[in-house]
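--- STAGE predict ---
source: upstream dedup step, 1 unique chain passed
mode: sequence only
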Amino acid sequence: MLALPPGLDPDLLRSFVLIAEGGSFTRAAQAVGRTQSAVSMQIRRLEEMLGQPLLLRGARGVEPTAHGQWLLERARRILALNDEIVASFRQPEVAGHVRLGSPDDYAVRWLPGILARYAASHPAVQVEVTCAPSNELVERLAAGELDLTLLSEGNEPPGGRVRWLWRGPLLWVGLEEVVRRRPLPLTLARGGCSWRRAAVEALEAAGLPWRMAYTSASLSGCLAVVLAGLAVTVAMPSPLPQGVRRLGREEGLPDLPDFAIGLLRGPGTPVAEALACHIEESFRTGEALEAA
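--- STAGE serialize ---
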């Protein structure tokens, strides 16, 4: 009788995906609730099982090898199927209507997976999603127009019920031929954006001349300008359009600070609390990050 091949532990794959996408063992360990050494051991076990190196440390952080990139695409699908199976056996807990706010960039990157899993486990809940910049969403929550909202660090109101979900680096992105222009052309959100403040403050501190060439309320709008070769922008660690690359010290740009994504609650209702707990758990276990 032929021996069966060893199975791949979803926990190992989840840690690998978090590291490959976030470029950091430390942040991956925080997301899965383990120590950094424990996550390193997980990756070592996975590499020993597959017989190939999967991750390399480089100037820009931890990046997947060629074998790691091949695995990354398939690991995402395995984890999505694993989570779908688990969610399909959960029983509905609450029913009703909940109003969720999110910046456009976070809605596109994280909400599809979160809402799909939530709908599978809470089919009697109707979720209404409103997309707007973080500062506007905070105002709508205060006005009672939302039950909870995702927001970028720097927009939280004093005394607000904020739970920080994720922290990672903010990155310069653009085309290499544009980054040498002076003044540096930028495309960023309007004045209330914390990413805009971080970018401008970093350039001012470094003494680099800049100009605001274009503004957009969403990252997709900024990336359209970047793809046209008209400006550079800032973004989270995530897959970028073909031709767009991460930029940094090698191109003469200053480091940008880390930033955080938070969940701000309004007055609690059972339905809103259930969704808030689901979002927090998705980020804690890494489910929210797997398709990002």
